[in-house]
Design goal:
alpha/beta, D-Maltodextrin-Binding Protein, domain 2, 2 domains, seven-stranded mixed beta sheet, three-stranded parallel beta sheet, 10 strands, binds pentane-1,5-diamine
């Protein structure tokens, strides 16, 4: 169960916040004139489809720093880069369940919070949750959070399933007879063992964060039964596949499916896409910014983190990719339709049903990886 997000604020606090936002902008501009002589390139490695159009150009203008921006769509890809050492990156954005182990392994530099005044905007309740993986919030600052649930081409799926099963039910994915009906229009699942095993265990009524190897072996048996109906494993391409009508179902991430929905609307597609958090709960996770220990440009990395936590900067990101931040002040600037979309900001009642992805012991991760290969190859 998760605590509710913080309450409202009075006019005094609002004025103060406006003043702080203005001050941040001014110091940003001041920074630009200083920074022009720095000849620094900030190397950022982040998830795909996770940033607004102007985020990088505005940072480059304000701070006089060039940004090299690379993408990944899997925590395992990022982790492999970090493990190989000297990644060259100044900012990485692991999910907090991975970050917890990476912190313990000494991969990140502690944050100099005197350089991060915008941390004052962060929701203490959400920071307390993230502290479960990063005690004292010493190494990481949330970039965004989201849920892992079900995305549909509602128009096509309703035709195939009729009213036999509600779309906000895990039964669509985990009952083999249901998902088999969708195979003909394309069934996609994330290529992310941590996400899929947590959802499967939850569906089975087990602890989604189980540390018992037998639970994972049992979960594989459940997964094997739906394997014949899965037509692709995808953790980023599925956005375009939904918009293109190439798949009608995905086990996917909230913002990604919502990006697809908006793109389909803009393109006036003859179908409706929609994201559902299944009744009874789903995973919630936080992707967090961290500075690798060997990062070549730590000062610029801190400037980046503080810039991202400027409420207006992050509001533009949420408006583009439909993932909220832990920045309480930012929500004020988020487009009203986005702020009121339960796929982006789940209601307090739904939040109570969500479970947080947490770091698991290495032997469980190794088991997950092994079983995942078996699942994918269908053996
Ligand atoms: C962004 C997906 C991020 C979610 N496209 C994975 N934590």
């Amino acid at each position: 169960m998760l605590p509710r997000r913080g309450g409202g604020r009075g006019p005094v606090r609002r004025c103060l916040s406006a003043a702080l936002v203005a001050a941040t902008t001014v110091s940003g501009l001041f920074g630009a004139s200083l920074a022009q002589a720095r000849d620094t390139t900030l190397n950022v490695y982040n998830w795909s489809d996770y940033i607004a159009k102007d985020t990088i150009p505005n940072f480059e203008k304000q701070f006089g720093v060039k940004v090299r921006y690379d993408n990944y769509d899997s925590d395992d890809t990022l982790q492999a880069k970090l493990l190989s050492g000297n990644s060259g990156y100044d900012i990485v954005v692991p999910t907090s369940n991975y970050a917890g182990r990476q912190i313990a392994a000494g991969m990140f530099a502690p944050l100099d919070k005197s350089k991060l005044p915008n941390l004052k905007y962060l929701d203490p309740a959400l920071m307390a949750l993230v502290a479960g993986a990063d005690p004292g919030n010493r190494y990481t600052v949330p970039w965004a959070f989201g849920t892992t649930g079900l995305g549909y081409n509602v128009t096509k799926v309703k035709k195939l399933l009729g009213d036999t099963v509600p779309l906000d039910s895990w039964d669509v994915l985990f009952k083999p007879e249901n998902i088999a009906k969708l195979k003909s229009c394309g069934v996609s699942v994330l290529d992310a063992p941590d996400q899929m095993f947590a959802a499967t265990l939850h569906y089975m009524g087990r602890d989604p964060m189980s540390t018992k190897p037998s639970d994972y072996r049992d979960a594989l048996e459940v997964l094997k039964k739906i394997r014949p109906s899965i037509t692709q494993f995808s953790s980023s391409g599925y956005i375009n596949d939904m918009v293109g009508g190439d798949i009608c179902f995905t086990f996917g991430w909230s913002g990604d499916v919502t990006i697809a929905r908006h793109r389909a609307e803009e393109a006036k597609k003859p179908f409706v896409l929609q994201y559902f958090i299944p009744k009874g709960g789903a995973a919630i996770w936080f992707d967090v910014m961290a500075i690798p220990k060997d990062a070549p440009h730590k000062e610029a990395a801190l400037e980046w983190i503080n810039y991202i936590e400027n409420p207006q900067v992050h509001a533009a990101i949420t408006d583009t990719v439909y993932y909220p931040s832990a920045n309480l002040e930012s929500r004020k600037y988020v487009d009203k339709a986005v702020a009121n979309d339960p796929a982006v900001y789940p209601s307090a009642d739904v939040i109570k049903t969500l479970f947080l992805l947490k770091p698991l012991p290495p032997e469980i991760l190794r088991l997950q990886t092994r079983l995942w290969t078996q699942f994918k190859t269908g053996h």
